[in-house]
Amino acid sequence: MKNVTDSFVSLVHWPFAGSFGFNTDILATNPINLSVVLGVLIFFGKGVLSDLLDNRKLRILNTIRNSEELQGGAIERLEKARARLRKVEMEADQFRVNGYSEIEREKLNLINSTYTTLEQLENYKNETIHFEQQRAINQVRQRVFQQALQGALGTLNSCLNKELHLRTISANIGMFGAMKEIID
User: Does the pTM of the predicted model rise above 0.70?
Assistant: First the structure.
């Protein structure tokens, strides 16, 4: 562990390079080494580069060929779609013409149905009014009858004494008895 730490410490104490400037020594600047490396790269890289360019060219040509095939298929589909569109437009025109006549028929049926419904509603209204009138008349009759009966009872109770009341009851019983004998 101490050796590793010593190696890092020794790296820190490396001496710095001298001043910055041009080196005119050809062997020290390595132009020969650079030209050799560039020559080797050009010699061996030329084949790799030409292979890459040929592959790229083939891919581009294949893409163009595929695009042309797709274009041809798209043109065929477009023509078929246009033919279907023309057919659908003709059918739509036919449906439109038939639809207008159907709409007119439905409109007349609706008008007739509405007229019939209105007549029925008018009849129901008249029946309801007649029924309500009869009911009102019956209620008035019942009320008049009740008031007349109450008035008559009040008059009878005030005018009749006990003896007269008993004679009236006896006379009525006698009348009912005589009616019974006539019926039998």
Answer: no
